[in-house]
Amino acid sequence: MNQFQLSILIAILFVSCHSEDQNILRLTDAQILEVKNQAILAKKLDDNRRDDQPTFDDSNGNRMFPYSLVGLTQRPQLIQTKQNGAVILNYRYDSVGRLQEAYLNYKLSEEAAYRQVYQYGQQGLQQISFYWGSMPGTPINLIRTLKFMTNHVGRINSYFESSSPAGGTTRQLRFDQRGQLIWSATVIGDPNTSTQVGEYSRAIRDVNNNVRTVRTLAGKFYTIDYEYDNKPNPLYELNAPDFTSPNNIIKEIKRNLSGEVVSVTEYTYEYRPDGYPIFRRSGTDVFEYVYAN
């Protein structure tokens, strides 16, 4: 029974109780209206999930990097990001330009307090391992892994996320016919056979591959619409398995299930002569990009 059917059943039961026994606690008009509204929202969630889930086969196209090695682009290497002067992450790359490690050192130390380590295979990204330390001089511990898996034709179609030896969660990935990531969803049941998904995010991309809208069900349903500049984004393809875009976001509008605006955030940039951003500002926050070349 889905959420919509359950909500209708609850409403029917309350109405039945009201008609048969005057001594039973009855719902007020406002409560009945709330039940009906919840049923409408539950049906909308079911409709959204069905409409958002991709159904086509993208097995013939070249994937974006890092879900295929073919998609690797040559560009200035981002080596550090900062927020209001404080380092967020440092980046290291391998000899062919693939992200090898993102890390953060302890303050006033060359010792890593946090690390993300990337491993690649013939089909692209194989695993991301996350490590965290408690203090300088102590071992840095593995706290989480994302292990990417392939389908019957050897193309990445999911990853297994584990943060403990006891188990983890499989997330399904789907790509459009240009090889861009557009779908990520939690698989319910056997990841090898199940077609049922729970929480999910669906990206709608434009002709330039920029993510224009993300529709997400994660506890609550919401959408975020994006606007972009026409300059290259140094974080494009670096933040797997998140959705990324070739250009830089200048505005994002978040809405709830009813379509009401929850928040609006705008960004302005300063750029290098080649168009890559140096600073991104939003309100009093300043995000800085540092490059190797």
Q: In summary, what is this structure?
A:
With 293 residues, this protein is mainly beta. The protein folds into two domains: 3-51, no CATH class; 53-291, Beta Barrel (Porin), CATH 2.40.160.
Write down how many β-strands occur, each being a DSSP E stretch of 2 or more residues. 17
Question: What proportion strand?
Answer: over 45%
The structural class is: mainly beta
Written as H for each helix and E for each strand, in order along the chain, the element string is HHEEEEEEEEEEEEEEEEE
Nearest-angstrom radius of gyration?
23 Å
Mean pLDDT: 84
Highest-level CATH class of the largest domain? Mainly Beta
Helical fraction: 10-25%
Number of helices: 2
Explain how this protein is built.
With about 290 residues, the protein is mainly beta. A hairpin with a 2-residue loop joins strand 7 and strand 8 (about 165-175). The chain has helices at about 5-20, 30-50, and strands at about 80-85, 85-95, 100-105, 110-120, 125-130, 140-150, 155-165, 165-175, 180-185, 195-205, 210-220, 220-230, 245-255, 260-265, 270, 275-280, 285-290. It is globular, with a radius of gyration of 23 Å. Helix content is about 15%, strand content about 45%. The chain is built from 2 helices and 17 strands. It has 2 domains: about 5-50, no CATH class; about 55-290, Porin (Beta Barrel), CATH 2.40.160.
